[in-house]
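> forwarded from #structure-qc
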């Protein structure tokens, strides 16, 4: 059983299953964001209507930021991350695979 709760989903047999009532709140947060509303405006709107977080707390700005950047909602799931040595001194090559895109980054190690 997973311990981390994700608004709009629940864990059932190690799979995420959509909870429709909660999913509507998540959709609303993203809709507000796309309409140009600030996180603070969304926070005030949800609190004014008595809508609480999954754990029953009032909304705060950071809760909304977490939802807007959570890879579960944005679809930017990180599939693989490896570090390989390179021929450059004090450097390593990091492979980051993201769905269909593969990025190569060179990061200098501190001396």
């Amino acid at each position: 059983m997973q311990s981390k709760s994700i608004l709009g989903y629940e864990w059932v047999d190690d799979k995420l299953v959509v909870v429709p009532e909660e999913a509507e709140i998540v959709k609303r947060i993203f809709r507000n964001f796309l309409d140009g509303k600030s996180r603070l405006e969304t926070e005030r709107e949800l609190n004014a209507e008595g809508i609480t977080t999954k754990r029953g707390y009032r909304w705060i700005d950071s809760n909304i930021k977490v939802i807007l950047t959570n890879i579960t909602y944005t679809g930017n799931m990180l599939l693989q991350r490896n570090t390989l040595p390179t021929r450059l001194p004090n450097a390593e090559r990091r492979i980051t695979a993201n769905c269909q895109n593969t990025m190569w980054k060179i990061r200098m190690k501190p001396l």
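QC bot note: The two ends are 42 Å apart (CA to CA). The CA atoms of residues 3 and 11 lie 9 Å apart.
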